[in-house]
Amino acid sequence: MKRGFLNTGKTNRIRLNDLSQGHPTTHRSGASPPEHSDANFKLSSFSRTYSRSPYIVSADHRVLDTTSIHFLFHPAPSADLVFVDTLPNILLFEAFMSRLPPLPAESPPFIIRDCGHKGVGVFARHAIGRGDLIIRERPVYVSRPGIVTSSGTFYESALAGLSVSAQSSFMSMRNAQPPVVGPILGRIQTNALAAKPPFGSEVKSHYPALFPRLCRLNHDCTPNTHYSFSTETFSGQLFAVRPIQVGEELTLGYVDLAAPREIRKKGLRAKYMFECTCSTCELPVEQALVSDIRRREIARYFLKMADGKKIPDGATLGEAKQLIQYARDEGLTEALSILLVSALRIARRDGNYEEELKCVVDSVSCVRALEGNEAMTFQAMARRFGLTPGELGQVLDSEEPIDYGRFRPLLR
């Protein structure tokens, strides 16, 4: 999931910097954070405490209605997460989170350390297998998309009820935005990943979320991990899309990876203020041109899939298979997954059983790389053949050619 998504939408925008006077509030005043936090940030003079347990604060007591913004600091009293949304959604979210058990303790297979000109990065502590879960964590900050405000006090209020450790994890993230954006909003715009709330929302776009560890990953145009968000556990997850060696840096893609090199580099310079020097961008000229051609062709195919088309107009199986090979050559696992499903549908349309079977198996293998052994389709395939997910993973990850014939029952 690329970063920077929260700046692209123009709909569902809620303006907070020009609020008019509303009805007087009867909620108790709460102009300072709870004692436990010893916070660096203070609630604004217009904020009021709506509830102490759960700890909910209205962003501006002068306007209180169903669309006004509130801050939920969860769990009370020592909050490590703030959820920013309208009051009805805040209450739904708190009810959901209060039922969730804590995430299981983990022994992280990575370390976060200095990496020179890139600042800090995340590095493998030991070998990590394809499809392995690397990180699972809950965000420290989640916000309704489309909020528009120039007020720094709004964002300070959004952090004021967090514990010191949660505030520190937020403020230790890099801010690549101009000073006019502000230190808090700048960190949100620089680091946010996508989250989806556990309730139906009138907002169709994803919610920007910041994670203490997931947001530490640096960019690569051929990343070795994939980020996804689990609404069921309200956690961000990171999976290895290929084997990762000891000491290797873990990376994500910040921009459209199907774009050619100069467009990717331009986007990274404009948004994140750095020059990409990944191995893909540093390819010799002739190899870089080949890479650009492959990625451009994949992008063109995706463009033809716009508007929900399952099969692009005029698409052939030969074309899809060529693009699948391009995605493999470029190490673009997410693009490969999409292309395999498209090829599967084309093969089914053409009555080509053998190619359909190959695409089914390969696409499930690809899903495992993107979503791990817990992926429902991968677990269903394992059960179908009386294997554990680990055993099926060994079959699909073997250096030997896959015996597709053993999977024939999948299409019966």
Automatic annotation (TrEMBL):
It comes from Mycena indigotica. Pfam families: SET. Signal peptide: none annotated. SMART domains: SET (SM00317). It comes from the Eukaryota. Residues 18-29 have a biased composition (Polar residues). This is SET domain-containing protein. Residues 108-255 form the SET domain. The lineage of its organism: Eukaryota, Fungi, Dikarya, Basidiomycota, Agaricomycotina. InterPro entries: SET_dom, SET_dom_sf, SET_domain_protein. Gene3D superfamilies: 1.10.220.160, SET domain (2.170.270.10). Residues 13-38 are annotated as: Disordered.
